[in-house]
Design goal:
- The complex is a heterodimer.
- Chain A contains 15 helices and 19 strands.
- By secondary structure, chain A is of the alpha/beta class.
- In chain A, helix 2 links the parallel strand 3 and strand 4.
- By secondary structure, chain B is an alpha/beta fold.
- Chain B contains 8 helices and 7 strands; from the N terminus they run E-H-H-E-H-E-H-E-H-E-E-E-H-H-H.
- The radius of gyration of chain B is 18 Å and the shape is globular.
- In chain B, strands 4-3-2-1-5-6-7 form a 7-stranded mixed sheet.
- At the A-B interface, helix 2, helix 3, helix 5 and helix 11 of A face helix 4, helix 7 and helix 8 of B.
């Protein structure tokens, strides 16, 4: 029986990429696009050299530098010798193997998950991997995209394939219209807050419903980006005209007749009527509020007006102790909302929220105003093209005039590997994706939120409900 | 990769749930170009204070951790970042197996590629071990990968799941890349057929 069962989009992409599969073995999955960066690739290239292997398909790998690059003046030498060494190794490895590299001098340099779509390298129906857990970002285009370890980076370089056990499928459906002040970031924080940081383990998520259909590609990327924070390696959204309009004319997108053929094929990717998921959960968009995290993982998220949960009211002893430990680290007392709590730093950036629409949203709140003198505000665009566009639109001036630091593109204070970091004990409101202990610097305390909320907090110097400023 | 067949040894309990790989090895220690010696960075910010002094109350600083090959971890161990430096650091410290009720997907896959065995047990077995282990520094368990069994203190045995492919790779100590390379002709045919 051929093609009778209705299939989900995940199933269609998975099945068309299985090179072969032996009984009791994982599938050998073909990888269409491999993105690499400086931090998780050196050992993979070293492995190839030790085994005498070559890169099988250099044109299917694209490299950039993002994790450890300074976001200060690029004309100055890099002062961290380890960072210089990682950048030099990537340059050498790409040159030796014929891999396209967008290094510091490239006009396209930026966060790997920002530039893949910008270049048009990320396309519907593709399998996309990268040695980075936020690879699910590319699922916004209707691609099966997931993060891998360095061993797997080596496997893909050598064979363009990966051994993978098929995940189960999970539908996250959000119907309705988001209220003012509620963004894609708030949607995904609400999802993770409900399912928990392990709730999507073993699953590929598909986000469905009118709320996602109404989103721009940038908003969809924000949603898919944080799938891993719910434990799911992959998160995806069916492609539609918004997807095709975003990609049309980009450097790596098909051109001319090939474009028409590609779009025709992409229109067949969405799940069939009646296709079933292993699990489904649903949300009403109208009920969602701006979200903020209070603890040390992204599942510890609440509506910004809600009280911080009280461990004394929890039944499960392990969860109770986890919450106590988290609140102890954060020095946050339970039972009260975070509103009004002083903060030290605002970070607007990261592969979650550093795109032009994020910067426009933040600038809308900040335009003509000054940030609190008590708060340091970093605005870090996701890529050089975004930086140029923000400067052309006057957004950079809005940020500078408001008292923000306007910086060069990179991961910056999301992962704090490049010197952009919190001091011990400081609180940040951050548009990034992880509030783990020490994530933004040892002893630093992170409150995750949307760009709108982050900008509102920058103005007042305290945790603020952006809806009061709109 | 060193084969993994049987392992009997002492257990180090770390009860926290949802331990992320940023805790296992903080990002500032990822600025390396090789895999060796990362054990000294394992759980760095839980093991050492801001001045770099060991925190005596942290389990990995206690005598029982020295030479113990098995970590008893909380639910959803290894969530967050895909950094393979996490299993490299655990293995470098001396761990060869981790017992938990659940592991994050990417971390679990990374462990299996580095000869570090994730042993998934049911909640009751886990709770019993976690209750006993803190007060008993000599507590030992036995792992037999071939039969997929975990021998508990007191003589009881439970089985644990592992996919048969990963199991065979671990038992033989072979790299998964070798298996993929054996099928280069099929990859070429797939590429040709697109």
């Amino acid at each position: 029986m051929a093609a009778t069962n209705p299939r989900t989009m995940f199933e269609k992409i998975w099945e068309s990429h299985v090179v072969f599969q032996e009984p009791d073995c994982p599938a050998l999955l073909y990888i269409d696009l491999h993105l690499i960066h400086e931090v998780t690739s050196p050992q993979a290239f070293q492995g190839l050299r030790e085994k005498g292997l070559k890169v099988r398909q250099p044109s299917k790998t694209v490299a950039t530098v993002d994790h450890i690059v300074p976001t200060t003046d690029r004309s100055l030498p890099i002062t961290d010798p380890q960072a210089s060494e990682l950048i030099a190794q990537l340059r050498g490895n790409c040159r030796e193997n014929g891999i396209e590299l967008h290094g510091l001098e490239s006009r396209h340099q930026g966060i790997v998950h920002v530039i893949g779509p910008e270049l048009g390298a990320t396309q519907p129906g593709m399998t996309v991997v990268c040695g980075d857990s936020h690879t699910a970002t590319h699922g916004a285009f209707g691609a099966l995209a997931f993060g891998v370890g360095t061993s797997e980076v080596e496997h893909v370089l050598a064979t363009q394939c990966l051994l993978q056990n098929r995940p189960r499928t999970m539908e996250v459906r959000v119907e309705g219209t988001l209220p003012p002040g509620v963004t894609a970031k708030d949607v995904i924080l609400a999802v993770i807050g409900r399912i928990g940081v392990g709730g999507g383990t073993g699953h590929a998520i598909e986000y469905t419903g009118s709320a996602f259909r109404a989103m721009s590609m940038e908003e969809r990327m924000t949603v898919c980006n944080m799938s891993i924070e719910g434990g799911a390696r992959a998160g995806m959204i069916a492609p539609d005209d918004a997807t095709f309009n975003f990609l049309c004319g980009r450097p790596r997108a098909p051109q001319g007749e090939a474009w028409d053929a590609a779009v025709a094929a992409w229109r067949c990717l969405p799940g069939d009527e009646g296709a079933r998921y292993d699990r489904s959960i649903a949300f009403d968009a109208a009920q969602l509020e701006p979200m903020i995290t209070y603890g040390t993982n992204p599942g510890m998220a609440i509506p910004i007006t809600a009280p911080v949960p009280d461990p004394a009211r929890m039944e499960d002893a392990v969860r109770q102790s986890a919450l106590r430990k988290a609140l102890g680290y954060m020095a946050i007392e339970p039972g009260k909302p975070l509103l009004g709590r002083p903060i030290d730093v605002v970070f607007i950036g990261s592969c979650t929220n550093s795109r032009i629409s994020d910067l426009r949203a933040a600038a809308k709140v900040l335009r003509g105003k000054k940030v609190s003198p008590k708060v340091r505000v970093l605005v870090v665009p996701g890529s050089q093209p975004i930086k140029r566009q923000a400067e052309a639109e006057g957004l950079a001036d809005v940020f500078r005039q408001a008292g923000c630091e306007w910086r060069e593109a990179g991961c910056s204070m999301c992962i704090a590997m490049n010197g952009d970091m919190l001091a011990p004990g400081q609180y940040s409101v951050s548009t990034s994706n992880r509030n783990f202990e020490g994530r933004q610097g040892p002893g630093g305390r992170t409150l995750l939120a949307s760009p709108l909320t982050a900008a509102a907090c920058a103005l007042t110097g305290v945790v603020t409900d952006v809806r009061t400023l709109l | 990769m060193e084969p993994f067949t049987k392992l009997t040894g002492r257990v180090v309990p770390l009860s926290a749930r949802d331990v992320d790989t940023d805790q296992i090895i903080p990002a500032r220690f990822l600025k390396v170009t090789d895999k060796v010696g990362l054990g000294k960075c394992l759980f760095h910010d839980w093991r050492f204070d801001a001045e770099g002094r060991p925190r005596p109350d942290f389990i990995l600083n206690q005598p029982r951790a020295a030479g113990a090959p098995i970590l008893l971890a909380g639910d959803n161990f290894g969530c967050g970042s895909s950094r393979e430096h996490a299993p490299w650091a655990l293995a470098s410290f001396g761990f060869r197996a981790i017992i938990s009720t659940s592991f994050a997907d990417i971390f679990c896959g990374n462990c299996l590629k580095n000869g570090l065995l994730p042993v998934i047990v049911d909640a009751a077995t886990h709770a019993a071990l976690m209750e006993r282990a803190p007060a008993d520094p000599a507590i030992e368990v036995g792992i037999d990968l071939a039969s997929q069994t975990l021998a508990l203190p007191g003589g009881a045995t439970v089985t644990f799941p592992i996919d048969s492919f990963s199991k065979e790779c671990l038992l033989a100590g072979v790299d998964q890349l070798g298996y993929i390379l054996k099928h280069a002709d099929k990859i070429a045919a797939y590429e040709h057929g697109r």
